[in-house]
């Protein structure tokens, strides 16, 4: 799927999201289910070429199971290191729930794969699942051994759902909290949107490089939101010498991303929310290599460009149309977080009101 058609799919989701937000009539609500559904639908579109209505039964099963998997991730992750814990409450129940959820999710994934295989037409590749299945057929015809396998496809799709849904949704929820707290920044972003895009059409990716303040704001949200504070766990495949240390083969390695994003040597006053740190004196964006929300190296986030597209389009489309406000009686947004798959804000309620 090319960048242009991907952008169209994202904008289709955004249009539906904006209608759903408008229907809240400026009353306090939790943005999480709406935004997660939207970004999950983007992945569905890439994988299966379709989207689901928010109240579709199959989609509800997938979303609930995905949410439970995310919520239990830290505890189930512990079982990787201490597997015997699975026999002891409360881990026993957690393990049973995880197995049940995985079965439910794989049923949905299998159903969609089988539908694709039934209607497969090599001359009309509709989406990722078709493209993958096509690869299996090509390798089969050539009689070659391949890692492209029907069952492997289910795990690839599952990985993309896991990696691509909660991350983007969580970043957007931090984004809204930062805008609640820093209304001055929010107004500057809105002024840039009005100037470059206006109110008559949805934002496009072509607008992004004309909007340095917005780009810098998203960078600062990603720096302070810091949603993957310890990166992903990797393992050394052989012995490694690193800065005078010897790391043996098969050692689990984690990267302390927080130590970098909060290091005054890279970011002055690191606790301060300050988009201007990413702008030079002419208002142009400064790239800072110490900002690495998608990690670096060979295992860098596979979805980085999709995620950047989603963040820009969701963020600007919401602020183009709405102001963000605290519920009556709430003086300050809470920046307390929960450590699940990612570092995510505690559930909060927000008022998103049509702009004057
Ligand atoms: C704001 C959103 C996102 C953030 C902050 C983010 C961040 C990350 C980080 C830090 C990693 C670990 C890299 C490493 O192992 O060193 C990662 C891996 C990955 N991400 Fe993302 N991600 C985001 C969105 C997405 C999206 C939308 C997709 C695609 C659908 C995606 C797919 C993946 C995949 C497949 C990996 C594993 C790559 C590998 O192991 O080789 N991510 N991401």
Automatic annotation (TrEMBL):
Database matches in InterPro entries: Cyt_P450, Cyt_P450_CS, Cyt_P450_E_grp-I, Cyt_P450_E_grp-I_CYP2D-like, Cyt_P450_sf, Cytochrome_P450_fam2
Main location class: membrane
Keyword Iron: yes
Domain of life from the UniProt record: Eukaryota
Subcellular location: Membrane
Keyword terms of this UniProt record: Heme, Iron, Membrane, Metal-binding, Monooxygenase, Oxidoreductase
Name of the protein in question: Cytochrome P450 2U1-like
Organism lineage: Eukaryota, Metazoa, Ecdysozoa, Scalidophora, Priapulida
């Amino acid at each position: 799927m090319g960048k242009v058609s991907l952008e169209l799919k994202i904008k289709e989701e955004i249009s539906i999201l904006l209608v759903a937000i408008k229907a809240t009539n400026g009353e306090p609500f939790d943005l999480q289910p709406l935004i997660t559904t939207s970004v999950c639908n983007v992945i569905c579109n890439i994988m299966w070429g379709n989207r689901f209505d928010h109240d579709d039964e199959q989609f509800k099963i997938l979303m609930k199971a995905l949410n439970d998997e995310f919520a239990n991730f830290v505890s189930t992750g512990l079982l990787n290191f201490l597997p015997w814990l699975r026999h002891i409450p409360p881990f026993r129940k957690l393990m049973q729930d995880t197995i049940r959820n995985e079965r439910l999710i794989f049923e949905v994934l299998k159903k969609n794969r089988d539908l694709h295989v039934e209607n497969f037409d090599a001359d009309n590749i509709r989406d990722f699942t078709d493209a993958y299945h096509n690869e299996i057929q090509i390798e089969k015809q050539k009689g070659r051994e391949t890692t492209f396998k029907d069952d492997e496809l289910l795990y690839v799709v599952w990985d993309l759902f896991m990696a691509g849904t909660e991350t983007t949704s969580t970043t957007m929820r931090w984004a809204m909290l930062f805008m609640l707290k820093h209304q001055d920044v929010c107004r500057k972003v809105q002024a840039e949107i009005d100037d470059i895009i206006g109110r008559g059409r949805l934002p496009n990716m072509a607008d992004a490089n004309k909007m340095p303040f917005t780009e810098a704001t998203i960078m600062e949200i990603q720096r302070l939101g810091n949603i993957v504070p310890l990166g992903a766990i990797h393992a050394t495949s052989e012995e490694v010498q690193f800065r005078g240390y010897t790391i043996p083969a098969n050692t689990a390695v984690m990267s302390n991303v927080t130590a970098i994003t909060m290091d005054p040597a890279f970011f002055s006053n690191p606790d301060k929310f300050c988009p201007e740190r990413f702008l030079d004196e002419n208002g142009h964006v400064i790239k800072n290599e110490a900002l690495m929300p998608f990690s670096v190296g060979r295992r860098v986030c596979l979805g980085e460009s999709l995620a950047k597209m989603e963040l820009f389009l969701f963020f600007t489309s919401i602020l183009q149309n709405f102001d963000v406000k605290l519920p009556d009686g709430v003086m300050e947004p809470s920046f307390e977080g929960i450590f699940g798959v990612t570092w995510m804000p505690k559930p909060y309620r927000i008022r998103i009101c049509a702009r004057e």
